[in-house]
Design a protein that fits this description.
Elements (H helix, E strand, L loop, with lengths): L10 H12 L2 H13 L3 H29 L3 H8 L4 H33 L3 H4 L4 H6 L4 H18 L2 H28 L2 E3 L5 E3 H9 L8 H19 L5 H6 L8 H31 L9 H13 L2 H37 L3 H20 L9 E2 L5 E2 L1 H29 L1 H8 L9 H23 L2 H6 L1
Helix pairs in contact: 1-9, 1-13, 1-15, 2-11, 2-13, 3-11, 3-13, 3-18, 3-19, 4-5, 5-8, 5-15, 5-16, 5-17, 8-9, 8-15, 8-16, 9-13, 9-15, 10-13, 13-14, 14-15, 15-16, 17-18, 17-19
The structure holds 4-fluoro-L-phenylalanine.
The site of 4-fluoro-L-phenylalanine has 16 residues, from helix 1, helix 2, helix 5, helix 11 and helix 15.
């Protein structure tokens, strides 16, 4: 039925590529920011509980669907039930949208790596440095195009020769760098103007201690929702990416082990990123530096690096190189998923497909990169914030479409094709699907309800209903 399909060489290659997709700016920037905002250890405990239940269910589903159908989202959902092809199309649209802006963020990260490489540590710590960079009509476009070009080159070289090779090299280095920087963060100390001394260990304590002060029911719900949407984004689930990667996994690979390893890698890097960033920001800026949005990574951290003195330039460089690795391996998974779907729909070869997509996305990345200058717009999003082009793409794909897709796919798996369809794939080589009971309850009952609430909340409908 299928032509000779590309595949990962084996379990390790697959796990590193999937971890490469999962570990991205979500782990390095969004997770630490949410942990600091949402009660430290309290957020950590909730997040871990969600990883073991929701994360596991979503990841196992996507990967098993991919390996069993040997196709990407559109073909896979059509194979599961022809009437549900629309869900495949909807899922395919998520990476289509994400790809318009992911290389732009990759470009920002690359720019900052260059800044530290050339020793402009003090300049990058200036208040308006980031704003004047992204509002320039040239530099952010060039960096986005560069990042897009490198991504396309890797995907052009195929699954084993491109994606797996890059992931095998970058992911272990990334892990070492995160551990080294986190270790360094813990040794920091600083005396502020009021004569108060703060140490990295105090910062670590702030990070892992559960803060129950002012915990109301609605705040608890907010923390839960934050943790849940972080989980989706972080594991790259419900957007067809893990279906595509799953379709490249050889039958002999033990999916139970692979799913566990991907979860451990992704969550481990997120926890370490918190230990790397929170103590450093805490030492130099107290809890005030932990602000939202890109400002933590591109505004607060450069101030921290500058305050570190000479070592700051090196630490800044290592940090942004780590972030380039994380962002690049995620970006290639987004482009690969679009490529794989297009190859299946149009029956075209990889090289031609990648070339056409590259032209489209070079143009799209340039437009989004100009969203802070020439194409500046302000749109009020349903969650109350005001967004530019990049935020709008991010909001539609991550906040609205992903929970909706998870809701529909849990109904499809739980009630139409039945959980045993997934279990059969998890037990293909006689392995035991240890969390089978948990999986069945999650996919049939808990996921549909929670995803529905999450969808209502993130699309702004919940607020409307509540008046
Ligand atoms: N999982 C990545 C992260 O945590 O940063 C983000 C991501 C990767 C989102 C790939 C979307 C995507 F298609």
């Amino acid at each position: 039925m299928n032509k000779k399909k590309s595949s990962f060489s084996g379990q390790l290659g697959f796990v590193l590529a999937a971890a490469g997709s999962a570990v991205g700016v979500g782990n390095l920037w969004r997770f630490p920011y949410l942990a600091a905002k949402d009660g430290g250890g309290l957020f950590l405990v909730i997040y871990l509980a969600l990883v073991l239940t929701f994360g596991f269910t979503l990841l196992a589903s996507d990967i098993a669907i991919g390996r069993r159908t040997k196709e990407s989202a559109i073909g896979a959902y059509t194979q599961m039930s022809p009437k549900w092809k629309f869900l495949g199309v909807l899922t395919f649209l998520v990476p289509v949208l994400i790809m318009t802006y992911y290389a732009v963020i990759g470009g920002w990260v690359t720019k900052y790596a260059v800044v530290y490489l050339t020793g402009q540590t003090a300049a990058a710590a200036q208040d308006n440095y980031f704003t004047s960079f992204i509002t320039s009509p040239v530099s952010p476009v060039l960096f986005a195009l560069l990042f897009m070009g490198v991504t396309a080159f890797i995907v052009y070289n195929g699954v084993e020769g491109g994606i797996e090779r890059v992931s095998r090299c970058m992911m272990p280095i990334l892990l070492v760098l995160v551990v080294v920087i986190a270790g360094y963060s813990l040794t920091l100390h600083h005396v502020d103007e009021s004569g108060q001394m703060r140490t990295g260990m105090d910062g670590l304590l702030y990070y892992i201690t559960p803060h129950f002060e002012e915990l109301t029911f609605s705040r608890f719900l907010q923390i839960l929702l934050d943790a849940m949407s972080q989980l989706f984004f972080s594991l790259s689930v419900s957007m067809g990416i893990m279906i595509t990667y799953g379709s490249y996994v050889k039958p002999e690979v033990n999916l139970n082990k692979a799913v566990n390893q991907i979860e451990i890698f992704d969550t481990g890097v997120a926890l370490l990123a918190g230990a790397m960033i929170i103590p450093a920001v805490f030492v130099f800026s107290g809890t005030d530096g932990m602000s939202a949005g890109p400002s933590l990574m591109f505004i607060s951290l450069p101030k921290v690096f500058a305050a570190m003195g000479k070592a700051g330039t090196l630490v800044g460089l290592l940090f942004f190189v780590t972030t380039i690795f994380a962002t690049l391996t995620s970006c290639i998974s987004v482009l690969e998923s679009i490529t794989a779907n297009c190859m299946e729909i149009f029956h075209t070869g990889r090289k031609k497909t990648v070339l056409v997509l590259t032209v489209i996305y070079l143009a799209a990345s340039a437009v989004i990169a100009l969203g802070y200058s020439i194409f500046y717009i302000e749109v009020k999003l349903p969650n109350g914030s005001v967004g530019q082009l990049l935020d709008i793409m991010d909001y539609i794909s991550n906040s609205v479409m992903m929970p909706f897709i998870a809701l529909l796919s849990s109904i499809l798996i739980g009630w139409i094709v039945k959980p045993s369809w997934i279990a059969a794939e998890m037990e293909l080589n006689g392995e035991t699907f240890r969390r089978k009971k948990l999986y069945n309850v999650m996919i049939r009952y808990i996921m549909p309800v929670i995803m529905f609430i999450l969808f209502l909340q993130s699309s702004g409908l919940l607020n409307k209903i509540a008046g």
